[in-house]
Amino acid sequence: MYNIRIYAQYHSSCLDFSYYSVHSMASMIAPLFLVIVSALLLFLHRRSRCRRLRLPPGTLGLPFLGETLQLISAYKTDNPEPFIDQRVNRYGPIFTTHVFGEPTVFSADPETNRFILLNEGKLFECSYPGSISNLLGKHSLLLMKGSLHKRMHSLTMSFANSSIIKDHLLVHIDRLIRLNLDSWSDRVFLMEEAKKITFELTVKQLMSFDPGEWTETLRKEYVLVIEGFFTLPLPLFSTTYRRAIKARTKVAEALTLIVRQRRKESVTGEKKNDMLGALLASGDHFSDEEIVDFMLALLVAGYETTSTIMTLAVKFLTETPLALAQLKEEHDQIRAKKSYPEAPLEWTDYKSMIFTQCVVNETLRVANIIGGIFRRAMTDINIKGYTIPKGWKVFASFRAVHLNPDHYKDARTFNPWRWQSNSEATSPANVYTPFGGGPRLCPGYELARVVLSVFLHRIVTRYSWFPAEEDKLVFFPTTRTQKRYPIIVKRREESRPNKSP
Length: 501
Description:
Helix content is 56%, strand content 10%. The protein has 18 helices and 12 strands. A hairpin with a 2-residue loop joins strand 1 and strand 2.
């Protein structure tokens, strides 16, 4: 009888456990089932609605995945624009696809791109993948909208216009570039060196910090943040994104300490003529979080894009010896007028770099560091005989336009002399858009040109070089070289006697 009671109790407990296990499992499966069903119904609803509209030609691909895998795999080839090339050939310059979880209309048409840029805030709003939005922060300039964006965009441009560069920034740009180049010897990874230069310049402009251990530690964390931009924004499934979130937290903590210290200094009357000082004195009463998000995004913009342009300019010139020779001649003439070899550059020197500006224009056109921009339709939009449904994303591809032979002869060949002719030099604004356009025109476009010009001046007058090994371009998730472009550098011998200062 005793054994029977124990068995009955044990059997009863097992039944209880089974009941709770089944109940628990059911409670977990039910929400998941509802999510799947809801997503499927939404997908079918979108398909049904799309059939009633005259969408641009194309395909939405597989449910949920769309054509995302095709896009990623295509950019692993040597072709800079394979995904768009294939679909433009098949459907025309405006086509429908489904990438990164959303239906998207791609445009390789310059008129449509300009329409998208100029109607920011009216018909289209800024929209980027969740990974980028989360890592930059909701208060970054990239994600700001309306009057706040207009005000902050204007403030940013006021710290990077020609007048500020001429009177204040040029001397720092030249000094920091010279300091970095002084440390070069034998083999260097040009991409890494360029990133150090641009990061130090941006930190100086934003917070008045000179290069040091703190800036280098911060830069290394930034590398991890940027690596997470084009990943699945789910820490549980993406190690890269999880690492990027941790790095973003460290960067935000470091910048927060600086902001708080500067607030204390501003109370006692200490002020610095930099971006942080302007934000604290703006009268908008920005919180620490808002200022940190804003500066964090500007650091990313100044660090990643300009350094890549610097590297690719050297790569393209190395592969085009005639252009490099003409560039050296222009800068040797500037140096010959100086009273001593290391004399700083002046604004008149920069304005005299005529062929340099052709090199800058062509590097921006071929490299396409900003390949295009994402926007979201705020309402149903009719354009070129098609309808872009409300809520859909659009991608205006600048690269596809820049590399189109209909707009540039031998479009995929680096040819800086094309900018000496009237055709390219006076090309319509909707064809040449390396810095975007409209209300979100890159506020640092003039500063980027000056930094690249000064860098080219210093490297061609100080060094000769050759590639340490073959290095190819890759185009996803961003344009860069596979091996950070290693080069062997050698000091150029002085061809003329030094003059005393």
